[in-house]
Design a protein that fits this description.
Strand 2, helix 2 and strand 3 form a beta-alpha-beta unit. Strands 1, 2, 3, 4, 5, 6 and 19 form a 7-stranded mixed beta sheet that branches. Helices cover 24% and strands 31% of the residues. The protein is built from 10 helices and 26 strands. Helix 1 runs parallel beside helix 7. By secondary structure, the protein is an alpha/beta fold.
């Protein structure tokens, strides 16, 4: 990379969002100069498998690549690896790299994602404390797990529970510590939380709720336990922290972009800075499926859809972002598929019997369907999307009736 490099469109971030923005631009006929700057040493790759198949040793990093190396070369997409953008100058339209070199841009698509939120208690920097955000994070974790019998997972969200499930299956003694009254509290309702708590406990995972970490104890510079605020010490050879991410937007905020917990964007993924878009985990946006609230969504779906919106807008085609959110999680033999956003629900309807390990939970707000959590229930997930998209009003007793397909409820919603 030369200090006077300049591209018509520069993409900062080598994850799903950056990769899809670049592929979309080329697929839609953009012939200008195009580059991706990524802070890792590997081409764009999938991150969701890191806490699942990659941690379980079922995939190596080459199988995570979103596109083969030849794809980028053949489509004249320059990719600069191992570089972090430290500053953005929206007047000169340049970015400054961590090695003080600069790159010019015509338009900038920012999709730098975020970095793991760190625990700040005493002992946070001991050897054996791990995070799961990059493949190198997992490689370091795997190198420690060989000699570890006891693992404490801090955080009962998707990442924490997925890692706990993988490690419990390998025979590790796993404890999950969650500060709230239930796991998945930020993303699901009580019915689903209790089900997953029971499943983890049935597989030998010790789930501690209403529990906070006071400190991480160590000996000879290495973790040996996790001390709770109650005074109890949980023995640990390895600690995994999964408590969310901090959006990587400091250069944009320093340049004057509106934001806070992320950088604010409009319905076309434009920031308040000229010719700069932001997408994915770091984009703070008004979401129509969140009752009009300004939120960030940490999901592949959001990165993918926002990449499409920003690429079109960069080429002069403005199509507002209005994608139905979806997520998934694999734990043990359970495939959880979520469509919509359940935050703010005022009623949840159980559809099916959790004892069968195939059921759904439907969430309503003011009588309208806003989300579904589907466990080993693919049909409900596929058909429920339309109910969320249209905000369908359906009587709870109909939603609970597994004998009636969800797609039929949309067709007859006026009679619900």
């Amino acid at each position: 990379m030369t200090s006077n490099a300049c591209f018509d469109i520069l993409i900062v971030g080598g994850g799903h969002g950056g990769a899809h923005a670049a592929t979309t631009l080329r697929q839609r006929g953009f012939n200008g100069t195009l580059a991706i700057v990524g802070d890792e040493d590997v081409l764009p790759y999938e991150r969701p498998p890191l806490s699942k198949e990659y941690l379980a040793g079922q995939k190596d990093v080459t199988r995570l690549l979103i596109r083969a190396p030849s794809y980028w070369h053949n489509r004249h997409v320059e990719i600069y690896l191992g570089h972090r953008v430290g500053a953005v100058d929206p007047v000169r339209r340049t970015v400054r790299m961590d090695d003080d070199r600069t790159i010019g841009y015509g338009q900038l698509i920012w999709c730098a994602g975020g970095r793991p939120r760190r625990v700040r208690c005493p002992g946070h920097d001991l050897a054996g404390v791990h995070y799961v955000r990059s493949y190198k994070d997992v490689d370091r974790l795997l190198s420690d797990l060989g000699r570890a019998g006891r693992v404490v997972v801090i955080g009962g969200g998707y990442i924490g529970l997925e890692a706990a499930a993988v490690l419990a299956k390998t025979g590790k003694q796993v404890t999950v510590v969650e500060t709230q009254e239930r796991v998945l509290a930020r993303v699901a309702g009580c019915e689903l939380s209790r089900f997953y708590e029971e499943q983890h406990r049935a597989h030998g995972v010790d789930v501690r709720l209403h529990s906070s970490v006071d400190r991480i104890d160590g000996t000879a510079g290495r973790v040996c336990g996790v001390r709770l605020t109650s005074g109890e010490v949980l023995p640990a050879d390895v600690v995994i922290v999964g408590i969310g991410i901090v959006p990587a937007v400091e250069p944009l905020l320093a340049a004057g972009a509106r934001g806070g917990d992320g950088v604010a964007v409009d319905e076309f993924c434009r920031t308040s800075l000229p010719s700069i878009f932001a997408i994915g985990d770091c984009a703070l946006h008004v979401n129509p499926f969140a009752d009009g609230r300004e939120i960030r969504l940490e999901s592949v779906q959001n990165a993918h859809e926002m990449a499409l919106v920003s690429a079109k807008a960069a080429m002069g085609e403005e199509v507002a972002y209005r994608a139905v959110p979806w997520f998934w999680s694999n734990q043990f033999d359970l495939k959880l598929q979520t469509v919509g956003l359940s935050a703010g629900y005022d009623q949840e309807v159980l559809r099916g019997d959790p004892e069968t390990r195939s059921f759904s939970v439907v969430y309503l707000r003011r009588g309208r369907v806003i989300a579904l959590d589907c466990v080993n229930a693919v049909k409900d997930y596929v058909q429920g999307r339309a109910l969320v998209l249209h905000g369908a009003e359906v009587a709870p007793e109909r939603l609970a009736d597994v004998g009636e397909p969800l797609k039929q409820m949309l067709e007859t919603r006026g009679n619900g």
